[in-house]
Design brief:
Structural class: mainly beta
CATH topology: OB fold (Dihydrolipoamide Acetyltransferase, E2P)
Distance between the termini: 82 Å
Order of helices and strands: EEEEEEEE
CATH architecture: Beta Barrel
CATH superfamily: RNA polymerase II/Efflux pump adaptor protein, barrel-sandwich hybrid domain
Number of domains: 1
Low-confidence stretches: none
Number of helices: 0
Length: about 90
């Protein structure tokens, strides 16, 4: 009888399920109250007017209206200026 197992075992067969991250509603598209606009890890996008950020950094609408993306300069301590993308919902008139 052999001491060692004859065939090798694979170590790279495990896989995690997809997290379905990314932008769900793009600029100038209509969002209803409670609709998820962006699912993200960390703060790639920031919450603007009529939007809130959940504890998993998901940005969602708190009012009905069209989605608007805006890039603004922000100040970072010690590193000067940088840019951040804010997501807002503009209510229909």
């Amino acid at each position: 009888m052999a001491h060692v197992k004859a065939a090798g075992t694979s170590k790279n067969l495990k896989d995690s399920k997809p997290k379905m991250l990314g932008v769900k509603i793009y600029g100038d598209q209509y969002a209803k109250m409670g609709d998820i606009i962006v699912r993200q890890r960390g703060q790639k996008y920031r919450s603007g007017v009529n939007t809130l950020m959940g504890r998993d950094h998901t940005i969602f609408a708190v009012k009905d209206g069209s989605v608007q993306f805006k890039v603004k300069r922000v100040h970072q301590n010690g590193t000067g200026h940088s840019t951040a993308t804010y997501i807002s919902v503009v209510p229909a008139k």
